[in-house]
Specification:
The chain has 316 residues and is an alpha/beta fold. Helices cover 26% and strands 30% of the residues. It has a single domain, classed as Rossmann fold, CATH 3.40.50. The chain has 7 helices and 15 strands. Strand 10 and strand 11 form a beta hairpin. Its EC number is 1.4.3.3. Its cofactor is FAD.
């Protein structure tokens, strides 16, 4: 690949890598600049269930982005090397007393029986792509390299730096956009997961509608990601043992087989919170595209956002 790129994507999480893949496969020369190795990004610790309702703003766009991503991950699930598989699981909520109308439109919808509801007043089954993120991020990197792209681990202190190395810059820096894009609407939403050996689980479980502490587990081939919680404006990446024990207790109460599962890791990530997801050219520089602020929906919006950016740059 020539030293001079057509586009530099800043940020090596799922939004940045997916965008780089789409741009490279469209024929552009692409480099990714990332301050973090793949395994240290927030994306690497995501549970990554793609289905479920969409409430993020701008709503008309986020619904479209998620639908595009659902289609892509469903197709990727045909290849085990991607880390994506279509799984069955329960969505539950302690809020309300009836299944909301939107739920009946989800793939694989089926109300839970009383025995399956785990005591939640709202409980139903769906099918959804479930993504093993470390495997998937490696797949994206391989796909980017195969398309002629490149990745460089480097700290970016200003978006003017990549602008000197390529005519177009795409800013996919997540929570880092608070400083790089001077955006005071961006803030960290700290989340912690506990990863355990898989004791034989196949179905996922996710409690929605809770802002701070909820119950979820996402099984992959050899491990299960347990959660979850959200702490706005908390920058700490240090695991909290009290939260670890609370997550384990909540998940074991739903699935007793987790009680004897070996703990493999406790992982912390900073979701990039923002009142609305930002995907647009910079108002002062049409050669700078911003794409950040996805909070906990980055994986489920990734392909839709990446393809929209590709359209912006290849069909001006």
């Amino acid at each position: 690949m020539a030293d001079r790129a057509d586009v530099i994507v800043v940020g090596g999480g799922v939004i940045g890598l997916t965008t780089a893949v789409c741009l490279a496969e469209s024929g552009l020369r692409v480099k990714v600049w990332s301050s973090l190795l793949r395994e240290r990004t927030t994306s690497a610790v995501a549970g990554a269930m793609i289905g479920g309702p969409v409430f993020s703003e701008p709503l008309s766009s986020t619904v479209r982005w998620q639908r595009a991503s659902m289609d892509e991950f469903t197709e990727l699930a045909k290849d085990p090397r991607t880390g994506s598989r279509v799984a069955r699981g329960r969505l539950v909520s302690r809020l309300g007393n009836s299944i909301p109308p939107w739920a009946t439109e989800l793939p694989g919808f089926q109300p839970c029986t009383p025995a399956e509801s785990a005591g939640f007043p709202v409980a139903f089954w769906i099918t959804s792509p479930l993504v093993d993120m470390p495997v998937y991020l490696n797949y994206l990197i391989d796909r980017l390299i195969e398309a002629g792209g490149d990745i460089e681990v480097r700290t970016v202190n200003s978006l003017e730096e990549p602008a000197t190395a390529a005519p177009v810059v795409v800013n996919c820096t997540g929570v880092g956009a608070a400083a790089l894009a001077n955006d005071d609407q961006v803030h960290p939403i700290r989340g912690q997961h506990v990863v355990v050996e898989n004791p034989g689980l196949d179905d996922f479980f996710y409690e929605g509608g809770v802002e701070t502490d909820w119950t979820c587990y996402m099984p992959h081939s050899s491990r299960v990601v347990l959660g979850g919680n959200a702490a706005p404006d908390n920058w700490s990446l240090t695991p909290d043992d009290t939260q670890t024990q609370a997550i384990l207790a909540r998940c074991i109460a739903i699935e007793p087989r987790l009680a004897t599962a070996k703990i493999l890791a406790v992982e912390v990530g900073l979701r990039p919170g923002r009142p609305t997801i930002r995907l647009e050219p910079d108002p002062t520089n049409p050669h700078l595209i911003h794409c950040y602020g996805h909070a906990g929906t980055g994986v489920s919006m990734s392909w839709g956002c990446a393809r929209e950016i590709t359209t912006l740059l290849t069909n001006p």
